[in-house]
């Protein structure tokens, strides 16, 4: 009987006549990337779960997105009382597999912080290229966004969260005329358009994704006490409602791994295996520059010890430049109802090294649930001959955990204290707000200073300066005594004025 691991790799299932020939994915080529494809309901999720279990058993950390919400069960062992148990026992006997149920070390993550530890990154780490993709900006708008990042870097203004980016955009809009002379046209309308796209992101919940503490990639690869690889499960069922955010996040994660990890060279196993479910979302409507970046990362990241496995319904969803780098392939059934489907089926079959025992195109149409057409790199690193393979049963539970089980795992996680509480340190929005407040205070002081400087000064009359009369009124050079005397004379002309004068004089005499 065969276990999860063979001497050299991962036992995927049985192939050949009667499904008795072990089909294995060599661990030393686990970083050569892979593809899991097939129509809905043909077993892609189970294959993903099987591979993740085996990599973890071999001490390799895994990151995978749980799109449908049913991969959380990998944290719990399968059960003999499950409906699938009898079928699994029969399949295990057919392929010569020693079935034993067990759970695996899982850490749950969630961009929205609801079903796992919050996943955050900063605006600066995301960068203008991925942000432009995330917001669907035009070339002109992306150009202005690059100016924003350049100015923030020049002025030492940290761009950590959405508030920082919004404040920096406002700052650039206010200086549009001056900046246009140095960097080209910076139209206030363009800045406004970017601000509106930021509002769309906020409505999709992206505000929680940007901030601190940012995810430390080393935590994804930290070993568990029992030596197994950590399985990081990203809750993506809600995230899928914002597909552009989902795709951009996963692309950012791959890019960060490429930038941060050192060169590893040839190794007996990878450091991390990355499963990218619903891979078509990464490429749908993506500009050429972004597709080129994905191809570059896929080509170079394997030297850092990272394997990327794309999961999608149709291999045609993946560009040829990326598809050509996927050495390990599991192709579940494809349906060919239309002319386009038939063309895609032929194209998928052409990507395999032919097996004289069967027609690959026919096999891809005929394989049942839990069965697949597979091809893995052989010991020389070249694609192996295509084989019809019955995929081994999983050791862990099929289906999701209960909410109580998930909460218990999250509470016991070593990362709860590090990531669950957000940090808001001084950054661009606070610094720019302080500058604006200081400028407003200085501006409010200027009118009072001008009023003081322009105020009229009244000086007493001097003997050497005769008083110049203008008409019947008093001049500006009248002394205080003269002004008082004239006022008193006018008041004596009325009864009320005489009473006031008598009162004042009476007070003076009493005082004496």
UniProtKB/TrEMBL annotation:
InterPro entries registered for this protein in UniProt: HerA_C (IPR033186), P-loop_NTPase (IPR027417), T4SS_component (IPR051162)
Signal peptide boundaries: none
SUPFAM superfamilies: P-loop containing nucleoside triphosphate hydrolases
Region span, Disordered: 453-478
PANTHER family cross-referenced by the UniProt entry: SLR6007 PROTEIN, UNCHARACTERIZED PROTEIN YJGR-RELATED
Protein species of origin: Paenirhodobacter populi
Protein name: DUF853 family protein
Lineage top rank: taxon: Bacteria
Coiled-coil intervals: none
Residues annotated as domain Helicase HerA-like C-terminal: 21-510
């Amino acid at each position: 009987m065969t276990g999860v691991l063979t001497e050299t790799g991962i036992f995927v299932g049985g192939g050949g006549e009667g499904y008795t020939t072990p089909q294995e994915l060599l661990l030393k080529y686990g970083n050569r990337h892979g593809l899991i494809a097939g129509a809905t309901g043909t077993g892609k999720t189970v294959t993903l779960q099987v591979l993740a279990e085996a990599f973890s058993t071999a001490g390799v950390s895994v990151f995978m997105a749980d799109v449908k919400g049913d991969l959380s069960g990998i944290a719990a062992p399968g059960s003999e009382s499950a409906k699938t148990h009898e079928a699994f026992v029969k399949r295990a006997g057919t392929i010569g597999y020693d079935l034993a149920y067990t759970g695996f070390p899982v850490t749950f993550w969630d961009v929205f912080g609801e079903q796992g530890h919050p996943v955050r990154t900063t605006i600066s780490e995301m960068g203008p290229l991925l942000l432009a993709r995330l917001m669907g900006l035009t070339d002109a708008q992306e150009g202005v966004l690059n100016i924003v990042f350049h100015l923030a870097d020049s002025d030492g203004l940290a761009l950590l969260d959405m508030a920082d980016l919004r404040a920096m955009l406002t700052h650039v809009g206010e200086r549009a005329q001056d900046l246009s002379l140095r960097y080209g046209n910076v139209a206030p309308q363009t800045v406004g358009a970017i601000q509106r796209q930021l509002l769309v992101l906020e409505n999709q919940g992206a505000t929680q994704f940007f901030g601190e503490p940012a995810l430390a990639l080393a935590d994804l690869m930290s070993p568990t006490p029992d030596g197994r690889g950590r399985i990081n499960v990203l809750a993506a069922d809600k995230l899928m409602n914002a597909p552009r955010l989902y795709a951009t996040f996963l692309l950012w994660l791959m890019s960060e791994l490429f930038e941060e990890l050192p060169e590893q060279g040839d190794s007996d196993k990878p450091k991390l295996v990355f499963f990218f479910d619903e891979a078509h979302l990464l490429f749908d409507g993506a500009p050429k520059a972004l597709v080129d970046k994905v191809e570059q990362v896929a080509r170079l990241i394997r030297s850092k010890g990272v394997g990327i496995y794309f999961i999608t319904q149709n291999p045609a969803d993946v560009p040829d430049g990326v598809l050509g780098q996927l050495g390990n392939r599991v192709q579940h059934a494809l349906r060919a109802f239309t002319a386009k489907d038939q063309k895609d089926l032929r194209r998928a079959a052409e990507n395999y090294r032919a097996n004289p025992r069967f027609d690959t195109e026919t096999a891809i149409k005929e394989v049942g649930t839990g069965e697949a057409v597979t091809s893995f790199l052989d010991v020389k690193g070249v694609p192996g001959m295509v084989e019809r393979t019955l995929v081994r049963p999983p050791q862990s539970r099929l289906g999701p955990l209960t909410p109580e089980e998930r909460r218990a795992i999250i509470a016991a996680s070593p990362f709860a204290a590090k990531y669950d509480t957000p940090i808001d340190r001084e950054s661009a929005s606070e610094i720019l707000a302080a500058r604006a407040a200081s400028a407003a205070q200085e501006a409010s002081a200027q009118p009072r200073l001008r009023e003081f400087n322009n105020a009229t000064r009244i000086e007493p009359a001097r003997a050497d300066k005769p008083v110049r009369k203008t008409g019947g009124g008093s001049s500006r050079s009248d002394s205080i005594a003269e002004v008082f005397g004239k006022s008193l004379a006018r008041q004596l002309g009325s009864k009320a004025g005489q009473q006031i004068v008598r009162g004042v004089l009476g007070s003076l005499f009493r005082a004496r």
